[in-house]
Amino acid sequence: MQTLKNLIETQFPGLPTKLVVSGNELTLECKSEHYFNLVKALKETKELGFDQVTDLCGVDYSTYKNQEWQGPRFAVVIHLLSVTHNWRLRVRTFASNDDFPIVDSIYPLFNGVNWYEREAFDLFGILFNNHPDLRRILTDYGFVGHPFRKDFPISGDMEMRYDSAQSRVIYQPVSIEPREITPRIVREEQYGG
After folding, report:
1. SS3 annotation, the chain
2. What percent of the chain has pLDDT over 70?
3. What is the dihedral of CA 19, 20, 25, 26, to 10 degrees?
4. What top-level class would CATH report for the domain 2-141?
5. Total-model pTM
């Protein structure tokens, strides 16, 4: 890991990045405006040779470790793998605008991130600039909101179901009545005695 850390520090001396070693993992943080070019350099630099993205996800840092987070709210985190050199690297970038989080898509570099970026958009509302087909992937196209955001309401008031009479999906108010569940307690007079 130290070899990789030293190599990254020498490859990007002028780029404002931050290397963090935690739990035997190396994380490279960069500003969102440098994200695409940094990932491109990590892929194309022969000495680094990161040729696979094994994961990409969105993160909502509005609260972190049960405390208010100081800094940008939304991040995109990718995990890179170099098969040639047998090392891994995590890259994290924060969207600069919390109200309209947007990060450049790395789809032109790794087309396997297509569905990962769509998932981060669908669940966190993070937009990926230059993504060829950014649309919802896990929720319904008419779904309002992004369910993995920490401020998303836990229970809603609308439900979706297929209506066979109309041959389509319809939305209607939630039909489940809330109920109080009280556990039954069984006591026997001579139990255990």
Report:
1. CHHHHHHHHHHCCCCCEEEEEECCEEEEEEEHHHHHHHHHHHHHCCCCCCCEEEEEEEEECCEECCEECCCCCEEEEEEEEECCCCEEEEEEEECCCCCCCEEECCCCCCHHHHHHHHHHHHHHCCEEECCCCCCCCCCCCCCCCCCCCCCCCCCCCEEEEEECCCCEEEEEECCCCCCCCCCCCCCCCCCCC
2. 89
3. 0
4. alpha beta
5. 0.79
